[in-house]
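Ex. 9. Protein: Alpha-acetolactate decarboxylase.
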Amino acid sequence: MSNTNILYQHGTLALLVPGLLDGTITMKELLTHGDTGIGTGEGLDGELVILDGKPYQVDHRGQVNLVDDNFTLPFANIHWADYHKLTSVENIEQADLEKKILSLTSANTFFSIKLHGEFSYAQTRAVKRSSKPYDTLAKTAASQSIFEQKDITGTLLSYYSPEIFDGAAVGGFHHHFLSDQRDFGGHLLSFKSATGDVELQQFDTLEQHLPTKNKPYMDFDFSGHDILGDIHKSE
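Predicted structure tokens for Alpha-acetolactate decarboxylase:
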């Protein structure tokens, strides 16, 4: 039986900062570690939402695509879903939702949140795939596409990382979104007035997988970069 207490992470957000954007894991391999997750493609090729074992990519045009086994990623979080209802919310705003979740759980371990319901407004983003030589994360994110939708039903899929792991992941919440109609989604920048059931899955183990076969990563000197500053600007 798959271990539902493990959060598997391929790559780190830190490696994206200087533009180490090679795809270093295939979707086929990633899906051996879970059926639910988020990520981005090689060259920051869109935003990924994995639900029920199906990997959906929101590209820079806002189109939602099912990707194949050969799709590669420089960064991803994935786990085997085993959510339990935490609470129900009605017309809640983003800051209040995050505050409520943290009041009902601990901020000192990794967990995933899934909120399926109705949102009065959602704003997402995705980035156009870049090619070598890759730009930095900050420069690439500056040309991101922004999408907006009102009165939409869908799933907010989020991972929370303790602040002490900031840099390996995003310290705090990292939200992605996918509509029920599979026609809208991406990295969730903001939302308003959400109503639905909030489910929680807590992890006691982070399995961190690094791209040790990727020479640009292995040879790179991170010391000259403001890793945390650039992550916070871009995320």
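Check your answer against this statement. The chain has one domain: 6-234.
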